[in-house]
Amino acid sequence: xxxxxxxxxxxxxxxxxxxxxxxxxxxxxxxxxxxxxxxxxxxxxxxxxxxxxxxxxxxxxxxxxxxxxxxxxxxxxxxxxxxxxxxxxxxxxxxxxxxxxxxxxxxxxxxxxxxxxxxxxxxxxxxxxxxxxxxxxxxxxxxxxxxxxxxxxxxxxxxxxxxxxxxxxxxxxxxxxxxxxxxxxxxxxxxxxxxxxxxxxxxxxxxxxxxxxxxxxxxxxxxxxxxxxxxxxxxxxxxxxxxxxxxxxxxxxxxxxxxxxxxxxxxxxxxxxxxxxxxxxxxxxxxxxxxxxxxxxxxxxxxxxxxxxxxxxxxxxxxxxxxxxxxxxxxxxxxxxxxxxxxxxxxxxxxxxxxxxxxxxxxxxxxxxxxxxxxxxxxxxxxxxxxxxxxxxxxxxxxxxxxxxxxxxxxxxxxxxxxxxxxxxxxxxxxxxxxxxxxxxxxxxxxxxxxxxxxxxxxxxxxxxxxxxxxxxxxxxxxxxxxxxxxxxxxxxxxxxxxxxxxxxxxxxxxxxxxxxxxxxxxxxxxxxxxxxxxxxxxxxxxxxx
Length: 546
Ligand SMILES: Cc1ncc(C[n+]2csc(CCOP(=O)(O)OP(=O)(O)O)c2C)c(N)n1
Ligand SMILES: [Mg+2]
What we know:
It is a single chain. The protein is α/β, with parallel strands linked by helices. The protein is 40% helix and 16% strand. Helix 1 packs across helix 2 and helix 16 crosses helix 17 (389-397). It contains 24 helices and 20 strands. Residues 388, 439-441, 467, 469-471 line the site of magnesium ion (MG).
C-alpha cells in the first residue's frame, strides 16, 4: 500500500536518495513541510542566519565534496537573497540545487504576502529555473533539475514550489518518488583522430606547459601527476583545480592566473605547446592574449561550448580530462626541454620568495601573516580566501596539496562568500580544519554565520587581515586620484564579536602569536576569529591590474 506523504516529504525523499547529505536553509512558514520531512527522514537541516549564507554553504559543500549542494528558501525575499550565490555558482561552474517556496496556487497573482514572480530573476542566474504545480510531478521536476545541473559544465538550478503543493498529499508511491537521481552518463573519450593530433603536437613540442582547470576537479583522474612526471611538464592550477596535483610538486609553476604570476606570463609567451585541460582561456589567463604566436594550443574539455572560447585552439578536443590523461599516460615520453622548464619554475620560486616583506611594528606584512597561518595549519586544512587586496597575496602564497582544499568565489569575485564557505566546508568535511582569510571589510558581510557553525558544533577559523580599510578599492583610488573616498574602516574588536557569538577570539600582533592562536583554535574545536593587524601593501595582482 502506498505510504501517504506530502510534497515536502517527496522532495526530501528524492534528495536523500540522490545522495544529498545536508540541506542549508533559512526558515519560512511556507516551507514547514520540508522542515518536518528533514526531521522525520533524518536529512540534516542547517538553519543559517541569512539565505545568501545558506546557499554559499550549499555551494561550498559541492566545492569540497564534488557532490551537489542543496538549499531551501522561503518565497519572495527568501529567494532573492539566493540570487548572488546562484550567480557565483553559475560563473564558477558548481552544482547547486535551490528549492524556493511560492504563495499557494489559489492566491497566485493576487499579491499574497511576501510573494513575487521571482522566476524570471532566477532564470537569469541559473542553468534552469522552473515552477512545479503538481505534487505528483515533483520527482519528475527534480529529475530534470538534476540533469540540467550536471549537464556539460555544472551549475545552479532552481525549483519553485507553491506552498499548497508542498503540503498536498502525493499519491505516487514513495518508492517511485525516491528512485534517486538519474545516473549521469560517462564523460566523452578522446576520438582516434583527436588522439593522433594530440600525439603529433606532443612529438613536436620542446617547451610544453600544462594548465589544469575546473573539469579536472569534477572527473578526478588519478593519473595527472603520473603524466606530469612522465613527460616532465611544468603545470599551473586554476580555480577548482587548485590541488588536483599537489602544488608542492617541483614542477608547479604557480597558480594559473597571470596577474599574480610573472613566471606564468613568461611561460605562456615562450611555450610551443600549451595543454589547456578542463578549462578555457578566461580572464585569469588574460583571455589567451599572452600566448606566444608560435604556440600550438591543445584544449580539452567535455563541454564543446568552452572549446575555442576567447582564443582558437589548434587541437580542440571534446573529451573528459580523465580520458586525455589516460591517453597521455600511454604515450611515449615527450622530450620537454628541462633547462627551460627549470628556468620557468625557478622564476616562480624567486618571485614567490621575493614577496615576503619584513615584519614591522605597525603591523605585519600581509605575506608574513599568511605564511604564519600556513606554517601552523595541518596538512589537511581547507583554506578559503575572499577577494580583497590581501587575499590576492593568499591566492599566490598557498600551496594546495589535494583537490577541494581551496575555496574562492572565482570569476564573480564576490566579497561575502568566504565566511559561509568556511562554515559550509566543515559540514562537508568535519574532520579537516578550515581557515578563512578575509579582510576587515569582507568579514562584516556574514560574520554571524560563526553562530550557525557554533550552534551545530562545527568549527572553522576566520583570520581577519585588518588593514583598517577597503584596501582593494582604496589603494587604486589613492594611486589614481591622490586621495580616497569613504575607504577607511576603524579598528573594530572582531575577537570580541566572535566571543559574543559564543566562539573563540584572538588578537595577534606577531607571527608567533598567530601560530599559537591557530594551534589553540584548532584544538578548541570551536569556531573562532583571529584578528591580525597588517600593513597596507598593494598585492602583485592589484599592482598588475591597476
Ligand atoms: C559583493 C561585492 N561587493 C563589492 C566588491 C568590491 N570589492 C572588492 S575588494 C573590496 C574591498 C575589500 O576590503 P577588505 O575585505 O578589507 O580587504 P582588503 O582589500 O582591505 O584586503 C571591495 C569593496 C566585491 N568584490 N564584491
Ligand atoms: Mg581591509
